[in-house]
Amino acid sequence: MPALLTEGVTAGYGRAPIITDISLSAERGTVTTIIGPNGAGKSTFAKTLVGVLKPMSGRIVVDDLDITRMPGHQIPRHGLVYVPQNDNVFKRLTVRENLEVGAFVAKGDTSARMAEVLGIFADLEKAKDKKAGLLSGGQQNLLAIARALMVEPSVIILDEPTAGLSPTYTDAVWNQIAAIARLDKAVLVVEQNVERALKHSDFVHIFVAGRSHVHGPAREIAALDLPSIFLGRSQAA
Ligand SMILES: Nc1ncnc2c1ncn2[C@@H]1O[C@H](COP(=O)(O)OP(=O)(O)O)[C@@H](O)[C@H]1O
Ligand SMILES: [Mg+2]
Questions:
Q1: For residue range 91-113, what is the model confidence (pLDDT) as tens digits?
Q2: What's residue 87's pLDDT?
Q3: Residues within 5 Å of ion ligand 2 by Cβ?
Q4: Which residues line ligand 1 (CB under 6 A)?
Q5: N or C: which terminus of the chain has fewer CB atoms within 10 Å of its end residue's CB?
Q6: Closest ligand by atom to 160 CA
Q7: Is 14 left (phi over 0), alpha (psi -120 to 50) or beta?
Q8: pTM of the model
């Protein structure tokens, strides 16, 4: 059973669907990345998974539990967390305090959990008593990811975690993404940069006009004529 499974998910903001019939699965220990042109519905899909939007049809299952109709605020405690595109760390709180806020639905001892999370984010460990607003943009993105990990999710969804970062920091974030997958989590990433997505992911979905047009192992996707697919000219492999 994959950590995350969606079947035929259709959703939108009004009556017209923006995403149609999205079926996707993500296994623990792997990185699955959604790429596709601007406006293809990548963020809309992410928002549907975490209950911000209710699907018109389809099913969303996390660790064998159907969360399709679950209120958004209950979803994190069932193992699915989302780090939005324009992230919001609490700038006036310290790194440590941000992580404590992240643990709000966690069970048991959060200090042990914090030590574990800081153990994989060396930059944050060094800055744990610093105000989040004083961190670089890249470090703030990592803090948002670290905060999401405080609830020990099965699935973590990252919407453009490297947007606006320097190339060096982008690599650092992707290395962290790999490290998170190695913690036996399913990581679902939305990424603008096709090359980076193909390089760092196990599986890739290409969204075009609200549909998962093509998907498969990154190595197979890399061999396709991606420019044509992005323009909607080519059919699924
Ligand atoms: N809050 C919203 N209300 C209405 N339409 C929206 C909203 N957010 C996004 N859209 C529309 O949904 C489509 C897909 O957007 P989005 O999911 O953000 O795409 P992507 O993340 O792939 O760039 C776009 O046409 C966009 O204009
Ligand atoms: Mg988006």
A1: 999 999 999 988 876 666 788 88
A2: 64
A3: 42-43
A4: 13, 18, 36, 38-44
A5: N
A6: 2
A7: beta
A8: 0.94
